[in-house]
Design goal:
The complex is a heterodimer. Chain A is mostly helical. Chain A is built from one helix and no strands. Chain A has one helix at residues 2-29. By secondary structure, chain B is of the alpha/beta class. In chain B, α9 (225-238) crosses α11 (269-288), α15 packs antiparallel against α23 (529-563) and α21 (460-470) crosses α22 (482-507). Classes of the chains: A mainly alpha, B alpha/beta. The A-B interface holds A 2-3, 5-6, 9-10, 12-14, 16-17, 20-21, 24-25, 27-35, 38-48, 50, 53 and B 49, 51-52, 61-69, 75, 77, 106-107, 355, 357-359, 362, 426-427, 429-430, 433, 542, 545-546, 549-550, 552-554, 556-557, 560, 617, 677-683, 685-686, 690, 694-695, 698.
Chain lengths: 53, 727
């Protein structure tokens, strides 16, 4: 059981890192992407989310 | 202040007709104004968002959107455009503003109302942009911001008269105290129902006739008559058709012909727009502004005499920086202790719930060891950014930019490059974005190429770990600490390297003329505690978020690589030797041994090598990888223990210490120069033009920084050995 949990956690982490790389690559390709779109979460960008209003 | 408490905004004469808005429709408002007029503070006050605010120009360089509901439930969408002195569209950020206001932006909406933010203490200069916006055919509201500062300086503005002259509602505001916000919101809805304003001055007959063909072409291309009037005058100043109007057939020759006719009529075509607008501005100011008291900005001038002095200025700057970095070390310790104890308690509690085995090791060594070893640096991040915020908001950073301008010009960079470089101290990504304020493409590219050399907050944990472990906490003259000085020297090293690299780029690949910078020095202001708290909280939130996402994921993966495949232990070995053998035979150990020959010339063993390799994803991972590798991630250990372990680590073959102060300094120097951040590479690709060109520049950036890092670390190590250090 422990081994399965460890495996799942590690795979999730790998997936997350893969997603980050994908987001960074997509931001590099898109001229429209804003600062917040690269996935670094560093600064700026649009905070608009009409679903919250 | 009484003006602010009177709610109804000053309104122009009643309109001849009115525009109706469908009930429930979202009111779209674009905020524009000169740099440093408080646009972002006003945006934050309106929307309740927390965009970064600074007391210098160029903080907002890309689109920032927000929305809010009025007390009666009406929706308002707000777009904070980059600060701009005019709509001349010289730099990428000014082009964004012009695109939006002309309704030509592909991905941003055209506003229903434009909110022009004017610095009430500098009305005349701010009216230039205002006069252009008034002609765009969109309803306008003017916020006379920083009204309290103008009043304190003895500047009195006749608001009803100014509203009459401009033909739009005017509301006095003090955005940093959220004063005047309700009347401003009411004015936005009122203005949306009014017809758009028109040009407030008449052109000479000859000029109107010369511009008529240009205007006709622009109207035919889809611009409103008002926007066409503004564009015709603007293009005359530029003497060409710019990117916005490239699709309009015959426009360039029409503009050239209009310019020729103006010259024949005795006008200077390229200066005509500014002359005619400033003539109108002077007349308006004469009718609306009175100055009754002594200008208190004299105090700012007196302070500037000292802080901008040729000799004392740089001395004060360095002294301030030394105090900042010393405080980062000395003030953070009690908080670091508290976080360490908290994490240790939590680790023990969680680890105790799990049976001994891989899952417990994952939680204790991988998660608590990895993420915890990075999280303990949170107090230092908070203190550093509190100081940076203080210096920014007080207006000192603009002085620092002025001091740096001389140096920037010497290396061939535009003075405006300093602001992106300054942003690079926080993170290279917003720093590279901030280069959008630079008009010249070569200056901009040169700045993009060097911004990642500025020491960002991700390097702080690496510096702190190594300085804490290898630099003694001694003080000179009672207050100058060696640890703080070492960290300051790392920041200075990055800055000097950035300037030298810029000089090389500007003299080789990106050769171009050096342009003078026009820098507005804002008056000194008492920083707002709220803004400061917001900026520090935001930076800390990002750090924790990064630790909880990127660092956490990488720590888990690195733990797995350090744990598997399992090695059958040799029973004759001692437990520590068995642990070492397991680590050496793990995937991480094998990778480390494979890359060891590359890092050996720098004095590093495979463990440092593999930690460096892992930190190419994110620099902080160096600390978490070290923590995982050395197995000090158990719940009783902490960053100090990691430092202790590093100090005591010996080479099994030679019996010598692996880490000497010389190795530590070499490592820090490596981290000063190396580009180890995926996000920075991605943003460089995009901002350098995208596609192959963008990848080419990003590749060059990564390579030159890696060569620089390796070369500098090699020089430090071997130079140090030759001088007798490192024994």
């Amino acid at each position: 059981m422990d081994t399965i949990i460890v495996l799942l956690v590690v795979l999730t982490a790998v997936g997350f890192i893969g997603r980050r790389i994908f987001l960074a690559m997509r931001a590099a390709r898109s001229a429209k992407a804003g600062c917040a779109d690269c996935g670094c979460g560093s600064s700026g960008g649009s905070e608009t989310d009409w679903s919250k209003s | 202040m009484s003006t602010l408490q009177s709610p109804p905004p000053a309104l122009p004469p009643p309109p001849p007709d009115s525009r109706s808005r469908p009930a429930g429709a979202v009111l779209r408002v674009a905020i524009i104004g000169n740099p440093n007029t408080g646009k972002t503070t006003l945006f934050n006050a309106l929307t309740g968002l927390r965009q970064r605010v600074g007391n210098f120009a160029g903080v907002t360089v890309e689109r920032v959107e927000g929305n809010f509901r009025t007390s009666d439930g009406r929706k308002v969408a707000v777009l904070d455009l980059p600060g701009s002195y005019s709509l001349s569209a010289g730099s990428p950020d000014e082009k964004i503003a012009l695109d939006v206001l002309l309704g030509k932006s592909a991905d941003l909406w055209h506003p229903d109302v434009v909110l022009v933010v004017i610095d009430a203490a500098h009305l005349e200069r701010n009216l230039f942009l205002t006069s252009q916006v008034l002609e765009l055919g969109v309803p306008v509201v003017v916020a006379l911001n920083q009204f309290d500062v103008a009043e304190a300086q003895g500047i009195q503005i006749d608001i009803p008269e100014l509203a009459y002259e401009l033909g739009v509602p005017i509301v006095p505001t003090v955005a940093k105290r959220s004063e005047g916000i309700d009347p401003l919101v009411r004015a936005l809805f009122t203005a949306a129902a009014l017809p758009p304003p028109e040009r407030k001055f008449a052109l000479p007959e000859a000029v109107s006739a010369a511009l008529a063909p240009v205007r006709t072409l622009l109207v035919d291309s889809g611009l409103t008559p008002g926007a066409s009037d503004m564009e015709a005058l603007r293009l005359l100043a530029l003497d060409c058709a710019d990117a916005h109007l490239r699709g309009v057939a015959g426009l360039a020759p029409a503009v050239a012909e209009a310019a020729r006719q103006l010259r024949l009529a005795g006008f200077q075509s390229n200066r005509f727009e500014s002359e005619v607008r400033y003539r109108w501005i002077t007349e308006v100011a004469a009718r609306t502004v009175t100055r009754t008291a002594v200008d208190t900005s004299q105090i700012s001038h007196r302070i500037d005499d000292v802080v901008l002095h040729r000799v004392w200025g740089p001395v004060i700057f360095l002294l301030l920086m030394a105090i900042v970095f010393e405080s980062v070390f000395s003030w953070a310790n009690p908080f670091i202790d508290a976080i360490e104890k908290g994490l240790a308690y939590l680790g023990q509690a969680v680890g105790g719930l799990l049976p001994e085995g891989d899952l417990q090791s994952l939680v204790v060594d991988g998660i608590f060891g990895g993420v915890g070893s990075v999280l303990v640096f949170l107090p230092q991040i908070a203190i550093l950014f509190a100081f940076i915020g203080l210096l920014e908001q007080s207006g000192y950073m603009a002085r620092a930019a002025f001091l740096m301008d001389r140096v920037m010009r010497r290396v061939g960079l535009h003075g405006k490059s300093f602001i992106p470089m300054l942003s690079g101290y926080a993170c290279a990504v917003p720093g590279i974005m901030a280069t959008r304020t630079i008009e010249d493409p070569k200056d901009r590219l040169a700045t993009i190429m060097v911004v990642p050399l500025m020491s960002c907050s991700a390097r702080l944990p690496v510096y702190t770990l190594l300085i804490g472990a290898f630099v003694p906490a001694v003080h000179y003259w009672g207050f100058v600490g060696l640890q703080g000085l070492t960290m300051l020297s790392m920041y200075l090293l990055g800055t000097v390297a950035a300037l030298l690299a810029a000089a090389v780029f500007k003299r080789t690949l990106l050769k171009g003329p050096v342009r003078p910078m026009i820098l507005e020095l804002p008056p000194y202001r008492l920083p707002s505690v709220k803004s400061l708290a917001v900026s520090v909280t935001q930076r800390c939130r990002l750090f924790v978020q990064r630790a909880g996402t990127v660092i956490l994921s990488l720590s888990i993966v690195l733990w797995a690589l350090a744990t598997y495949p399992k090695h059958t232990p040799d029973a004759s070995l001692s437990p520590p030797a068995q642990q070492e053998a397991q680590l050496a035979n793990s995937a991480l150990g094998r990778i480390g041994h494979a890359i060891e020959p590359l890092v050996r010339p720098l004095g590093y063993d495979w463990k440092i090598g593999v930690s460096i390799a892992a930190s190419f994803a994110a620099r902080e991972v160096f600390v978490s990888t070290m923590s995982t590798i050395y197995g000090v991630g158990n719940v009783d250990d902490d960053a100090v223990a990691l430092g202790q372990r590093l100090r005591e680590e010996t080479n099994a073959d030679t019996g010598k210490l692996v880490y000497t102060p010389l190795v530590a300094v070499g490592l820090m120097v490596f981290y000063v120069f190396a580009l180890m951040c995926m996000s920075t590479i991605a943003v460089t690709v995009r901002e350098a033009g995208g596609g192959r060109i963008g990848w080419g520049w990003a590749g060059l950036q990564f390579t030159y920084m890696l060569v620089l890092a390796y070369g500098a670390a090699w020089v430090v190590y071997h130079g140090g050995l030759a001088l007798g250090f490192g024994r």
